[in-house]
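Why run this: before we spend reagent on co-expression, it is cheaper to look at a predicted model of the complex and decide which construct boundaries make sense. The entries below are exactly what would go into the expression plan.
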Amino acid sequence: MSRDRLKKTIRIAIPLAFWLGVWQLAALWVDLELLLPAPLVVWDSLRTLAVTQTFWLSALFTLLRVALGLLGGSLMGVLLAFLTHFSNWASLLLSPAIRVIRATPVVSFILLVYLWVARANIPGFIAGLMVLPVVWGSVSSGLAAVDGQLLELARAYRFSPWKTLRLIYLPSLRPHFTAGFLTAFGLAWKSGVAAEVLCPPRLAIGARIQQARLSLETADLFAWTLVILALSLALEALLRRALRRGVEGP
Amino acid sequence: MTVCLQELCLSYGSKPVLDHFCLELSCHGLTALTGPSGCGKTTLLRVLAGLTRPASGQVEGVDPTHTAFLFQENRLLPWRTVEQHILDVLPRERRGQARDYLALAELEGESSARPANLSGGMARRLALARCVALGGDLLILDEPFSGVDQARALRILHRLRQRGAPVLLVSHEPAILAACDRVLRFDGPPLSLVD
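The model came back. Tokens follow.
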């Protein structure tokens, strides 16, 4: 193992061991599984869940809903950022509405949307709604920061609008979009699963969490939370790597 | 081609840079403009290239859509390679000539480098090569050889002359001025022709 790799492993292992120890001590101190199950109890629960088909299907469908919400919200965020940047009227009308979405608590939206949208679509819709203002904000800041000298060059060198977009706007926006997208990714997970808990579709991690809560299976509740955490961290690491590669270019 | 500037007026804030400025300029070969920094030479070039609109007056004999303008700053795209900078301004049917423009600026060995890996002089030569590749009836070059060593600058200037398109350039370098066909000396602001 190389020295760097060893360093990296230690940086992950030591805090992990420390907090698992704290968790174990707290569980021993509380001494009531219903309130705080020990790490090994949660691990057993996770192993039991992982051999069921419902486990994998719930994880898969939650992943799909969050991914669709993330992509849809990001796409809308980018389109609206361009619209509000280039049109004063669009900015006047849409910018306050997007800021209101950003400031509104997610639970209010979940309960409101419950009245309008089919239950299975609520988590994706909510994830998208939470992602949109974050991506919009990042891309809008990026658009405002595009180098005016390069835009003047594009005009002087007779670049078509498409070429200006491809050669100047998109590369300039990439770091802004990446930062916004990664922030939005975490939000999409949190809001998507929260929506699944409050409006549970049939196959969803949120629905399983709700079920565990109602049947007082605290170990299952912890196990599902660990699943969300693991999926979120793994996907974020993959996204970070993919987006970094994009920023560095071919 | 003859460019005719009539009664041009332009101010930056309360400071007049062009004050009823008139000039008739026969553009063929290499024409150099020189004068103290800040006298208004860049403004004059920008007006000629249609990038700055004068408050009043007329520019005749030059079509801004058929000129190529080299900015005082390099304005390179950090995410494009040297060769891509040239290809970006070439129409599809002339893409095969990209190497010629790199050769003109003595950048053949740097085609896959990005601007961050170029020296100041190389970056300037790339900006110049891109401008020449864009082409047009008139090349307007604002300090094209800043940061470029004199021997190389003179070689490139010689190649520009051989291409035949009229060149209007700003320079402070005596050797560059000496290599041009005519030199116009200015003072200002407001811009005025000295001789």
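Residues 120-134 of chain B form the longest helix (15 residues). The interface with chain A takes residues 49, 51, 65, 68-69, 71, 73, 75, 77-80, 88-89, 130, 134 of chain B (CB under 8 Å). Bring this page to Monday's planning discussion.
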